[in-house]
Amino acid sequence: MALPRIEQLVQLHSGLTFQGERKVTLERAVQERMEALAVRQLANYAEKLSEESREREQLISLLTVNETYFMREPVQIRYVVDRLVPELINRYRMQKKIVILSAGCATGEEPYSLAISLVEKYAGSVGQLIEIIGIDVDVKALSIAKEGLYGRNAFRGLPHSFPESHFAREADLRYRIKEQYRQLVTFQNCNILNQQDILKLAIKADIIFYRNVSIYFDEPARRTIFNHFSSILQDPGYVVVGSVESLLHDFGVLHLLEDEGLFFFQKGEPKSSQKKGWLPPPPSQSKKRQQSFLGKESANNSLSLPRLPHTSSVLPASISQRLSSTGKSPGSKQTQSGIPLAIDLAQQQNYPAALSCLEKEVAQENLAQNCQAHALQAAVFVEMQRYSEAKEVCQLILRHQSWHIEARMLLGVIAKRQADHEQALQQFKEVCFLSPHNWLAHYYMAEAYLQLACKPQAVRSYRVTANILRKDGMSQTGLTLFAPFCSTEQLLHVCNKQIVQLMV
């Protein structure tokens, strides 16, 4: 019984959870510490662990795989430096510093990468503009970060000029970060699952980097962490996650945005000129691919970094052109109707206008002929987090058409966001019965099984999801307003990773 107690102690003090192969990692780490201390009985080590914070730090250090390196996922770093930071500089106009938090910073490569990239762009003014804070639960890793001394492996994939330019070479062939970068970053010990630790930071962050950390946490822990992040984020503020982690954090706590394959979350409602899943490009650019969590897409998928949205509320070009061609003004009654227009407005996050456009359609008595308008209305309610109203509309649809896929998908999404995993599972099961090739329903069903500790069923559903994706891609979702939250390859990676972990 001692090992479960050790697991509980570690989770209490670090938030780390141990499922599948992670159980083996815990056992090995405990064995290593017991041998180092010459402790023979597991119960004796558990007692020592409960009494000595220093020993807890030693064990946690073995359990956190601080496998990182400089300029990891550089496209995300460039996006923050070239797009998000300029927007924040313009917003604050030197009235306050921009605060960037690197959560789970390990041995410091990520925050120092940010410092280097910011100095390259803003030179000596970075210290007056920006504050970078690295936090981690691993005290040993933080000591390495503070020292700023790294081996050649920390620069893998980078040209030799990188360490030569930004580091001082030591006699033992290691590299020490230059002082101009070190002084831009501060480090603090913090358990991101502990609300008191988060509050002790005493900051309001503008950008939180939270990349490649969530592998240590289950869904309830990830949800808690996002709530903690929300409590210390400016409004608006941003959370940047790893390239394959975005779908693991879409709880409705923060708004998921995407730009041409780059995912991040925002606190606060996106501007009316913003679409969930898309930031508009500079006016000089041609029309780019546009996506929304509840949306379709248009052309051109080349990677570019668009300008952040302005605060002005402007109708999208497609709508403006449609209105001008009919001679109607945006405020005229005749223009505030029609499902296509409502979809355009919903994709632009102009939800009140979208609902207004649907008023005439949903008021018709013959619901059987007008389910699309009601389903779109429910989808908009979901995006506004008006879940009770969305449920009522979906249930109304199902009373007339019990086989209506979109209504059941939306009910499942609502239940998922509200952590009602049994109800979510029931709805997604119904969808899979009605539409066997709906990959999204199978994927969400796998997630629900996982939360209900039904591992064999979860493995089966992940496998079905992967098979559909390999054969058909992301063609079927059952939602009118939906765009993929990641690429097919990224989702296949997540499914395969889950299968491997659950099979251990």
Task: Describe this structure as you would to a colleague.
This protein has 504 residues and is an alpha/beta fold. It folds into three domains: 2-63; 74-267, Vaccinia Virus protein VP39 (Rossmann fold, 3-Layer(aba) Sandwich); 403-503, Tetratricopeptide repeat domain (Serine Threonine Protein Phosphatase 5, Tetratricopeptide repeat), CATH 1.25.40.10. It has helices at residues 2-14, 21-37, 42-51, 53-63, 74-92, 109-122, 126-129, 139-147, 161-166, 179-182, 195-200, 219-232, 317-326, 339-347, 351-363, 371-383, 387-400, 405-417, 421-434, 439-451, 455-472, 488-503, and strands at 98-103, 130-136, 149-150, 167-169, 175-177, 185-189, 205-210, 233-241, 255-259, 262-267. The strands form two sheets. The protein has a seven-stranded mixed sheet with strand order 6-2-1-7-8-10-9. It has a three-stranded antiparallel sheet with strand order 3-5-4. A hairpin with a 2-residue loop joins strand 9 (255-259) and strand 10 (262-267). Helix 14 (339-347) runs antiparallel to helix 15, helix 15 runs antiparallel to helix 16 (371-383) and helix 17 (387-400) packs antiparallel against helix 18 (405-417). The longest helix has 19 residues, at 74-92. It is globular. It starts with a helix and ends with a helix. The relative contact order is 0.07. The model is unreliable at 272-337 (pLDDT under 50).
Helices and strands, with pairings:
Layout: H1 2-14, H2 21-37, H3 42-51, H4 53-63, H5 74-92, E1 98-103, H6 109-122, H7 126-129, E2 130-136, H8 139-147, E3 149-150, H9 161-166, E4 167-169, E5 175-177, H10 179-182, E6 185-189, H11 195-200, E7 205-210, H12 219-232, E8 233-241, E9 255-259, E10 262-267, H13 317-326, H14 339-347, H15 351-363, H16 371-383, H17 387-400, H18 405-417, H19 421-434, H20 439-451, H21 455-472, H22 488-503
Parallel strand pairs: 1-2, 1-7, 2-6, 7-8
Antiparallel strand pairs: 3-5, 4-5, 8-10, 9-10
Helix pairs in contact: 1-3, 2-4, 5-6, 14-15, 14-16, 15-16, 16-17, 16-18, 17-18, 18-19, 19-20, 20-21, 21-22
